[in-house]
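Sequence design from tokenized structure. All designs in this work follow the same two-part layout: the structure record, then the generated sequence. An example of the structure record is given first.
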């Protein structure tokens, strides 16, 4: 389905929510929408992009600013990761300025001031993430390819863009790299640690390199940022640790919409990564708070 009338606002958030064989990403995006409504003062709006023909529950419809079916065919129809439509974000977003997010995130505090900082650029992308203690992540455990090839260390879970020629060129080049990723990987990446699958982070890092604007992303920026909960980024020491971080520490979420991981209250946007973290109880807290 698609919203009958598109809300076109100056600023808003956007995410894609395509379900795969084991994950209901629409439910996850619904929780993100609720968290934005509960935490953002001036920009609480989330537009979601969905697989054409997806049936959206009524209560989800009320949470989203817009529901837009992915145009020009579903290029991720045969994919479990559902990355192949990411380049369409700039064409799907109805906003003049967009923060594009991964769906499996929650917000706890208003980031209204970030918008004004990001507005100085046509395009900005996170290149600095935090562990659950709010310490900057230094490990390249999951990013040997970035280190080996001196690629900008970008995290596409949080991207800002305006609808300008610069941003359009970046997303259009991303389309070309997605469709030819094996060839680009072979030409641009050294054999050591070369991935055998495509990822959005690597695609956009290659795009910035190809367009010769990667120098803008080598310098670590304070904003935007988020807490990234992959296990090997938490400064626990590398080893045979389960990739499900929830097995290594307690986490608490209360009706006041406060989240503690270990003994640390979460302040920054939380990319919780492990989908089982998002319980029906947490969603219920948001629903009751907003109601």
């Amino acid at each position: 389905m698609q919203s009958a009338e598109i809300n076109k606002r100056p600023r808003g958030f956007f995410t894609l929510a395509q379900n795969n064989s084991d994950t209901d990403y629409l439910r996850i995006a619904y929780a993100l929408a609720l968290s934005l409504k509960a935490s953002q003062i001036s920009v609480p709006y989330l537009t979601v992009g969905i697989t054409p023909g997806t049936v959206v529950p009524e209560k989800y419809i009320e949470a989203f600013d817009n529901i837009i079916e992915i145009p020009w065919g579903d290029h991720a129809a045969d994919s479990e990761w559902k990355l192949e439509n990411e380049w369409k974000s700039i064409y799907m977003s109805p906003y003049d300025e967009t923060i594009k997010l991964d769906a499996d995130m929650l917000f706890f505090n208003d980031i209204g001031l970030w918008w004004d900082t990001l507005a100085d650029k046509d395009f900005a992308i996170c290149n600095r993430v935090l562990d659950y203690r709010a310490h900057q992540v230094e490990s390249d455990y999951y990013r040997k390819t970035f280190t080996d090839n001196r690629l900008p260390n970008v995290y596409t879970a949080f991207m800002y863009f305006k609808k300008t020629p610069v941003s359009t060129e970046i997303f259009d080049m991303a389309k070309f790299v997605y469709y030819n990723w094996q060839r680009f990987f072979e030409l641009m990446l050294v054999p050591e640690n070369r991935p055998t699958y495509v990822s959005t982070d690597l695609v956009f890092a290659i795009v910035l390199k190809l367009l010769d604007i990667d120098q803008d992303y080598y310098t670590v920026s304070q904003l935007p940022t988020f807490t990234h909960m992959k296990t090997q980024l938490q400064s626990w020491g590398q080893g045979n640790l389960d990739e499900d971080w929830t097995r290594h520490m307690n986490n608490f979420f209360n009706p006041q919409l406060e989240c503690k991981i270990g003994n640390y209250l979460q302040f920054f946007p939380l990319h919780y990564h492990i989908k089982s973290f998002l319980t029906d109880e947490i969603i219920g807290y948001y629903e009751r708070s907003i109601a």
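The mean pLDDT is 93. We note this feature because it recurs in several other targets discussed in the main text.
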